[in-house]
Amino acid sequence: MTIDIRSDTVTKPSPEMRRAIAEAEVGDDFLDGDPTTRRLEEAVAQLLGKERAIFFPSGTMANQCAIWTLSERGTEIYADYGSHINDWEMVGAAAIAGVQLRTVQGEGPMMDAQSLERAFRAPSSSAPRASLVCLENTHNGAGGLVTPLAGIRAMHDVARNHGCSVHLDGARLWNASAASGTPLHEFARFADTVMVSFSKGLGAPAGAALVGSEEVIERANEHRKRLGGVMRQSGILAAGALYGLEHNRDRLHVDHEHATEFSLIVDRAIAATVVPPDSNIVMIDLTPGLSAHDVVRRVAEHGVKVGVWTPTRVRAVMHLDVSRAQVEQAGEAVLEGLDEAWRALGDTSEWPAVPRK
User: pTM here?
Assistant: First the structure.
C-alpha cells in the first residue's frame, strides 16, 4: 500500500466522520441558515474568542475575502515572502481586492516584527499607503514553524503603529496551538480576522472558517456571496468539519511526534539536511546537484509519496491517516531514495556504500 505524505489534505474521512456527514441535519444556508453549519460557526467563533464566524468552501477563498474586507483598493498589503497568500493564491489580492502585495523577507526563516518594521516605506506622496498586514501560523513554506504568541503580538503592534489592520492565515493554527500550548483565542486576539482550515490536520474533506467582529464578518459575507461561496445544504460539509474539530484536534500532538521521528530517520542521509520540525511538516533540503523531482520519483518507487516544494526542497506532512509503523517505513523509503539519487551523481561502481550521518 502506498503511503501518501505529500500533505495533510490527503486524508480520507473516517467511517465515523462519514456517518456524521450522512446524518447531518441540513437546511438552505442561503435562505434560512443551515443548522449544522451554524453549530460549526458558533463553535469556531467561541474557540477563537471572536463575535462571529462564517464557513467557506476553502481557506484560499476565506483569505481573499479577508483581504478584500480589511484592505483598501489602491493600497499595498504586507505578507511574508514565502507565505501562502503570496505563493499559492494566484495573485488574488491584486486580481480581487485591487491591492499590491509587498513581501517581507525576514532575517530567519520567516517574517518577524523587526523585518516587518523595516519593510514599511517612509511616508511620501509618491509611495503607496499600507492598509493591511497578513500573518501566517504555522508557516507552511518555512516548514510548519510556529510563531510564538509574543511574535504575533509584536507584528500586530507594528501593523497598528502604521495604521494597518491584521489578518492571520491560521490554516494550521490548530497545530500552532497544539505545539506551543497557546490557546487559539490568544493567537486570535492579535488579528482582526483569522482563517482556520478543517481539511488539513482535522481530516475533513473540505472547508474553512473566517472569524472576526460582527461588523467585519458581515462585510466579508458580502464578498463571500460575490465569489459564490455561500452554499445551500452546506451542513453536509460542515458536519465533517465539526466532527474533525470535536474528535481530531486533541490528537495533533501525535502528528508532531511522527514528524520528529520521521525527520530523525531522514536526517541520516548525507544527501540532504532536514529542517527540525515544530509541528507536522518536514522540509528536506537537498545537497547541491540533486533534483527534488528526481528524489520524489525515486521515493515513489519505494511506495511513498512526498511532495516537491522547490527544485531543491522536498516536503513531507504527517497526518491522522499515517500510523507510527508507516512513519518509520516512509522515513526509510525517503532515506533510500536520497541515497539512490546521491549515488546516481557519480560512478556507483566506485561507491560500495553511501556514508550516512
Answer: 0.96
State the residue for C-alpha cell 507594528.
Answer: 158
37 membership: H or E segment, kind and range: helix 35-48
CATH number of 54's domain: 3.40.640.10
Q: Does residue 153 fall inside a structural domain?
A: yes
Look at residue 194 and tell me if it is in a domain: yes
Backbone angles phi, psi at 70, to 5 degrees: -90, -20
Contacts of 313 (CB under 8 A, 6+ apart): 283, 284, 285, 286, 292
227-285 pLDDT per residue, tens: 999 999 999 999 999 999 999 999 999 999 999 999 999 999 989 999 999 999 999 99
User: pLDDT tens digits, residue range 164-204?
Assistant: 999 999 999 999 999 999 999 999 999 999 999 999 999 99
- Considering only residues 349 and 356, tell me which one the structure prediction assigns the higher pLDDT: 356
Report d(CA 153, CA 151) in Å as an integer. 5
The residues near 66 (Cβ < 8 Å, ≥ 6 apart) are 167, 193, 195, 210, 212, 220
Residues 179 and 35 in one domain: yes
In-domain check, residue 356 = no
